[in-house]
Specification:
- It is built from five helices and 13 strands.
- With about 260 residues, the chain is α/β, with parallel strands linked by helices.
- The termini are close together.
- It folds into two domains: about 190 residues, Vaccinia Virus protein VP39 (Rossmann fold, 3-Layer(aba) Sandwich); about 40 residues, no CATH class.
- The strands form four sheets. It has a seven-stranded mixed beta sheet. A two-stranded antiparallel sheet has the order 3-4. A two-stranded antiparallel ribbon has the order 7-10.
- Bound molecules: S-adenosylmethionine (SAM).
- S-adenosylmethionine (SAM) binds next to loops.
């Protein structure tokens, strides 16, 4: 990635680094500092980086690498931490140990300044159309004084989704050790970019971000240190949807 991509070029990055040493990816030590600095350089003003990460538990303690990375992104690179979202795995694997079952990963939403795009995912309200009896509301009036009151309100059909996304791990690509659920990539791309934007994944693995970006009519760039993943998974996966690899491949597939 270094110097191959111009400054202020990418609208959205959706990516996931290797989690501590849970998977070694051929013994490669991951340098998150350089990666985050470069991501800041290439991200447009108002662009977003979604960083999906989790921690290993080593000698009985979580490493908190995820938070070290988020603090580095904020304090050393200049990103805003726009949101700390959770990807909740509805089909987590139960383990026999002395703590509650591990069922989530962090999805840090870093932004370069204020995000320039937000197309919120909407969900149905469970009680849509119902007339609530004397619903309590809280609002700020013109003098900025908060007031509390009661009203009869008709519940809307839809509302903005919450920042915990419940997803199945089963919708990821089967030939890679740690793929995104397709819905995760899709919903972030819809949320933080528009058609024609440039979407990037510097550790694209099986190419989930690239595939979803392509299907949503965004431009995309995918990079992975593994030539095997690029050649044997990403390219054939994209070609299934009519993407043409001729003219679109650069050999510089590692950072
Ligand atoms: C957690 S997986 C990402 C999976 C991906 N989100 C998907 O849906 O398939 C991390 C990927 O990072 C790649 N990787 C690790 N270190 C890297 C580096 N320094 N530069 C580029 N890719 C790297 C690995 O080969 C692996 O495919």
């Amino acid at each position: 990635m270094k110097n191959n991509i111009p400054d202020n070029f990418v609208d959205l990055t959706v990516t996931s680094p290797p989690y501590d040493n849970l998977r070694t990816y051929k013994g490669f030590v991951f340098d998150y500092q350089s990666m985050l600095k470069e991501l800041y350089r290439i991200t447009k003003d108002g662009g977003v980086v979604v960083w999906v990460v989790n921690d290993a538990t080593i000698k009985g303690s979580e490493t908190l690498t995820s938070f070290k990375q988020a603090i580095y992104a904020k304090e050393e690179c200049g990103f805003n931490v726009h949101d700390t979202m959770i990807y909740e795995k509805i089909n987590y694997i139960p383990l026999t140990h002395n703590r509650y079952e591990q069922c989530f990963e962090y999805m840090f939403v870093f932004s370069k300044g204020k995000p320039k795009t937000f197309n919120p995912i909407m969900i149905d309200c469970k009680t849509k159309g119902n007339n609530t009896d004397k619903r309590t509301f809280y609002q700020t009036n013109k003098q900025d004084k908060p007031t509390i009151g009661h009203n009869n309100v008709c519940v809307k059909n839809q509302k903005q989704n919450k920042n915990i996304w419940e997803l199945s791990t089963n919708s990821g690509y089967k030939g890679h050790p740690a793929p995104f659920p397709e819905q995760l990539a899709k919903d972030h791309i819809l949320s933080w970019s528009n058609e024609g934007d440039i979407v990037f994944d510097p550790m694209c693995g099986s190419g989930t971000t690239c595939k979803e970006a392509y299907l949503l009519h965004r431009n995309f760039i995918g990079v992975d240190m593994s030539e095997e993943y690029i050649n044997n998974i990403c390219i054939p996966r994209l070609e299934q949807y009519g993407w043409n690899s001729i003219n679109n491949i650069s050999k510089q597939n590692s950072i």
